[in-house]
Specification:
Number of domains: 4
Helix content: 25-40%
Distance between the termini: 74 Å
Structural class: alpha+beta
Oligomer: single chain
Number of helices: 17
Strand order of the largest sheet: 1-2-3-4-5
Shape: elongated
Number of strands: 14
Radius of gyration: 35 Å
């Protein structure tokens, strides 16, 4: 990188093309520079006509950072499907930087870089040199500021910074991330834009709370989500030579209507917002399609800041249910939140592996496994489909704690799930409150109402996980006390005679006989429980 920068400062056309193409190629724009009589001519060619204002500002500030030695700069914007340039911007170099001397001169298109292709450093050669190293690598923010225009709070207002970041400008993205992480200290940040996926590498030796950190940063990054930045990856490493591991991967752009992907923290934006101005400021330099969001599993607690989400205030419950049936994690998340609204102090994580929905409940409080899974399982039948055929309920106490499976069940049995249920179920009233999370939902055989109404179990080991303790029979306790007293009297009567007969050797024999009983007390515990409870 430093060698290319030094060559660019000396006016090397291939180096200049490499630096500019490093970020512009991701947006479908190719840079072809040529030089003629101390005039640097740069052709910006894209699948659509490049935006004159943003690209002119970007290139001039970038070349000013490099320290270009040419007296004159001419920028040409051209659509690849057109034969002539759509716009021309001319700048004159001066002590304070580049000054525009002609805002637009399309009639001079014939004098552009294509007309000077006979020069030794042709646009084609410069483009080949630039695209040969087209795969971008993570660049430190401090280094990236040399390649791209430096945008900070001193020379760029927040709205302009956000719009520039939406266009995929790494310099603006860098400043945006720095502002978001201003409360964290001792962080080195590296950013990279691979097509439409923004990769952020955090280099630090301090501990980072992954869910909280990624949730906070992911929520802020939604402000710059666009067709140029559709997904984000959060990585962390301890040093330059250390291996980076991915903390989280998420989709932050969901197409032309991001109003459905706003978190609950922003209730002012409606979930069905389709206003083009409120949706995005579409940049003509980007044409990347938004990827599907159903293939990336995300924990629900953090996903509310990053993934598609509809809050509990959404009036259209039917639309939410239909969206959840398609496998949309944001809709599933909201659906589960509504189903568990009666429980407190729960952190919920969801993941969709193929057609199996995995729900992890993180809490330190006691959960009645059968009642909890029965209630939630019954609710989940409403979103059962070919996209969600089975469900697993897991529980853990903390982020680092091991999760154990409480129950695994199948909730979809074909095209008509109602046909597979042995017992008819009464129609649920729309205004009926959610069932109380209590053991009264259990039937005498220990199954929940959902289990008895067709919620087929696939893992009976959940019954063993139930913490229900057997009741002690008072009659058995009295009998055990009588037996213990009789046994003690017998020992007290036998012990003196045993000692007189065997002497000191008898003591050792007695200890040798008692030691295994004391040591293997767990072996006798089931027998004691059997005596006291009959189970």
């Amino acid at each position: 990188m430093s060698e290319v920068l030094e060559l660019a400062k000396k006016g090397d056309l291939q180096a200049i093309a490499t630096l500019l193409n490093r970020s512009l190629n991701a947006k479908g724009i190719k840079v072809k520079p040529v030089r003629q009589d101390k005039t640097l001519k740069i052709l910006l060619e894209g699948r659509q006509t490049p935006d004159q204002s943003s690209l002119s500002r970007y290139v001039t500030q970038g070349l000013q950072q490099i320290g270009i030695i040419d007296d004159r700069l001419e920028l040409y914007g051209k659509c690849s499907s057109e034969s002539s340039c759509a716009w021309i911007q001319v700048f004159q170099a001066g002590p304070s930087g580049f000054t525009a001397i002609t805002p637009n001169a399309p009639d001079n298109a014939a004098t552009g870089p294509e007309a000077t292709a006979h020069q030794p450093s042709t646009p084609a050669e410069a483009s080949d040199a630039a695209t040969s190293g087209n795969t971008p690598t993570p660049q430190a923010i401090s280094e990236q500021a040399i390649v791209e225009p430096d945008h900070n709070t001193e020379n760029c207002d927040p709205e302009a910074l956000t719009e520039l970041a939406k266009a995929g400008n790494l310099g603006a993205i860098e400043t945006f991330v720095k502002q978001v992480l201003s409360d964290w200290e001792n962080l080195e940040i590296f950013v990279e834009l691979n097509e439409t996926t923004l990769k952020i590498i955090i280099q630090t030796k301090q501990f980072l709370d992954g869910p909280a950190f990624c949730g906070h940063l992911g929520e802020k990054l939604e402000a710059i989500a666009s067709e140029n930045i559709t997904a984000v990856e959060f990585h962390k490493r301890k040093s330059d030579k250390g291996m980076a591991f991915m903390m989280k991967q998420a989709t932050i752009w969901h197409g032309a209507s991001p109003g459905t992907s706003q978190p609950e923290a922003r209730p002012t934006q409606a979930s069905n917002n389709t206003d083009p101005e409120a949706v995005s400021q579409a940049r003509p330099i980007a044409n990347a399609a938004a990827p599907s969001t159903a293939s990336t599993p995300q924990p629900m607690g953090e996903q509310a800041a990053i993934e598609s989400n509809r809050n509990t205030d959404s009036p259209n419950i039917e639309a939410l249910t239909e969206l959840a049936k398609t496998g949309n994690l944001g809709a599933i998340e909201t659906f589960v939140k509504q189903a568990l609204s009666d429980w407190e102090n729960l952190e919920i994580f969801v993941e969709l592996n193929e057609t199996t929905l995995k729900i992890i409940i993180q809490t330190k409080q006691f959960l009645d496994g059968p009642a909890f899974c029965g209630h939630l399982g019954e609710k989940l039948e409403a979103i059962a489909s070919e996209n969600i055929t089975a469900v697993e309920f897991h529980k853990r106490k903390s982020d680092k704690g091991m999760a154990f499976m409480m129950k695994q069940a199948t909730i979809w049995h074909g095209s008509s799930p109602a046909a597979s249920q042995p017992e008819p179920r009464s129609t649920e009233q729309p205004n009926q409150p959610a069932p109380e999370p209590a053991a009264t939902q259990l039937r005498p055989n220990g199954q929940s109402s959902a289990m008895a109404s067709g919620y087929r179990e696939a893992a009976p080991q959940a019954e063993a996980n139930s913490s229900e303790k057997p009741k002690v029979d008072p009659a058995r306790v009295i009998a055990a006390i009588i037996i213990l007293i009789a046994f003690s009297v017998g020992i007290l009567w036998l012990l003196p005679r045993f000692m007189r007969r065997f002497g000191l050797f008898g003591w050792f024999a007695l200890l040798f006989a008692i030691a295994p009983i004391v040591r293997f007390y767990k072996f006798w515990q089931p027998m004691i429980n059997l005596v006291l409870t009959g189970k």
